[in-house]
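tool_call: predict_structure(chain=1)
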Amino acid sequence: MIRVVLPHHLRTLAQAGKEVHLQIEGPTTLGAVLDALEARYPMLRGTIRDHLTQQRRPFIRFFACGQDLSHQPSAASLPDAVTMGTEPFRIVGAMAGG
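tool_result:
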């Protein structure tokens, strides 16, 4: 079971709690987690990744086990602690401004 922590604006859109649990079949990759998340919460499609390119949206970041995974390819495996459910995969809405 994969634990995914969502930022407030995505929780509101998905009408979900702060943390959601996903069952992933096959390798636990960044893309597999995002695919499962969008399958369970279709209203999130296009908010985390672009519809056509499947690239991460500019102000969305991914973190796991203290590592920034935002620039990793979708086929990148997630850390074992995330796969085992002991650590969450975090989706963060980045801040901008000055």
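agent: The chain has one domain: 2-93. Proceeding to next step.
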